[in-house]
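Technical annex, item 7. During the second reporting period the consortium partners agreed on a shared format for inverse folding records so that results from different sites could be compared directly. Each record opens with the tokenized structure and is followed by the designed sequence. A conforming record, contributed by the partner at site C, is shown below for reference.
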């Protein structure tokens, strides 16, 4: 079940279901709840009135009415009260119960707002942590595409220390566009400069499929765990295995490199095996990825959060 983080308004999403951060009455309110009711139209409130409310941590479904989604899943997050009142547990149940409901409804895609992170006062960084880990826990069990929406202001998905370290690494390593273009011209006749160091050749002329098979067995990963760690679906894994010519995207290869806990060089080799260009020092996303792989913080959640935080997704 792949997931991604996106900046934007959930009412504009074309996913099969969107999740509403509602209150126990389910009769509407402010924030994302208000926005969803406005965009869905008055019929939504009529259906909500028949549902008899919803307990904290639980989820209920209505139709999508004037929205492009088929379903609205209403869940009620905890009100932040310092963290010692089971808030995290309740927030986790919101994600879990909403995902289970979406699955039962046959949804292929679902979008979440950052539940409880507005009026209910859950600290944003912690709300992001819980959202990502609750969604990730569900990964591997499902083929649904899950999107976490960040709305308004400039929400950064990594903590301050991580943000500062990555920022500094970017400023020291990102090759500017102008310099890069000049270097690319010079490189027409000469070997590429430091920003394009060629990775060493893959082990023993392995193909991508062979490398994936070997690494999977070396790490003793089962398929479910591999998909969860790589943020890929089971059907994609099947295609990789059965079709030697299947072309993977860059983010899928990065996901696999992350699942196999490769270092920067190993990740570069995997990109090469997939027929993709190596990490470039003139591409912001690649510079961030290099930082993460070099610093051993390349789990898929950190990768997504870091790329999102620097608008490099
Ligand atoms: N799209 C995506 N995210 C949004 C949108 C939108 N259109 N609008 C707001 N957000 P909140 P809560 C974000 O307050 O904290 C209501 O009155 C927002 O920036 O909507 O769970 C209910 O009736 C924040 O990050 O929900 C309840 O009484 C996140 O959605 C109460 O608020 C959640 O903020 C629920 O509070």
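Designed sequence (site C submission):
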């Amino acid at each position: 079940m792949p997931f991604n983080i996106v900046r934007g308004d959930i009412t504009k999403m074309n996913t099969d279901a969107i999740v509403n951060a509602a209150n126990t009455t389910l009769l509407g309110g402010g924030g994302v709840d208000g926005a969803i009711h406005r965009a869905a139209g008055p019929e939504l409130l009529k259906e909500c009135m028949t549902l008899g409310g919803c307990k904290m941590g639980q989820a209920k479904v209505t139709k999508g009415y004037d929205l492009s989604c088929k379903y609205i899943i209403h869940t009620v997050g905890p009100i932040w009260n310092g963290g010692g009142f089971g808030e995290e547990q309740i927030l986790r149940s919101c994600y879990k119960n909403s995902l289970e409901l979406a699955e039962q409804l046959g949804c292929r895609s679902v979008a979440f707002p950052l539940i409880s992170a507005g009026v209910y006062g859950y600290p944003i960084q912690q709300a992001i942590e819980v959202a990502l880990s609750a969604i990730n826990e569900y990964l591997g069990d499902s083929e649904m595409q899950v999107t976490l929406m960040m709305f308004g202001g400039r929400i950064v998905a990594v903590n301050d220390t991580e943000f500062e370290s990555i920022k500094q690494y970017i400023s020291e390593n990102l090759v500017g566009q102008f310099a890069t273009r000049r270097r690319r011209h010079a490189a027409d006749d000469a070997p590429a400069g430091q920003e394009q160091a060629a990775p060493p050749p893959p082990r023993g002329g392995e193909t991508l499929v062979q490398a994936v098979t070997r690494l999977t067995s070396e790490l003793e990963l089962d398929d479910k765990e591999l998909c969860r760690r790589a943020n890929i679906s089971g059907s994609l894994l099947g295609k990789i295995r059965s079709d030697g010519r299947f072309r993977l995207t860059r983010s899928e290869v990065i996901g696999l490199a992350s699942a196999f806990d490769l270092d920067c060089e190993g990740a570069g080799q995997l990109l090469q095996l997939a027929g993709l260009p190596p990490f470039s020092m003139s591409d912001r996303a690649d510079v961030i990825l290099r930082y993460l792989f070099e610093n051993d913080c390349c789990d898929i959640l950190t990768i997504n959060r870091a790329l999102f935080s620097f608008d490099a997704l």
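The beta strands are 3-7, 17-22, 59-63, 71-76, 109-112, 145-150. Residues 3-150 form a domain with the Leucine Aminopeptidase, subunit E; domain 1 fold (CATH 3.40.220.10). All partners now use this format for quarterly exchanges.
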